[in-house]
Amino acid sequence: MSDARAVCVGLDVGTGSARAIAVAADGAVAGRGAHPLHSRRDGDRHEQDPASWWEATAAACRAALKDVAAERIGAVATCATSGTILLAGRDGRPCAAALMYDDARAAEQARRLGLPTSWALPKLHWLLENERDTTGGGRTLAHQVDVVTRRLAGHAVPTDSSHALKSGYDVTAGAWPAAVVDDLGDLLPEVVAPGTRLGTVCAAAAAATGLPAGTPIVAGMTDGCAGQIAAGALHPGDCNSVLGTTLVLKGCSREPVEDRAHGIYSHRAPDGGWLPGGASSSGAGALTAAFPGRDLDALGEQAVAHEHTRVLAYPLVSRGERFPFAAPDAEAFTLGTPQGDGERAAALMQGLALVERLCLEGLERLGAPVSGELSLTGGATRNRRWCQLRADALGRPARLPEQTGSAFGMAILAIAAIADERVADAARRMSRTQAVFEPRAAMRAHLDEQYERLVGEFLRRGWLAERA
Question: Could you tell me if 241 and 377 are in contact, meaning their C-beta atoms sit under 8 angstroms apart?
Answer without folding.
Answer: yes
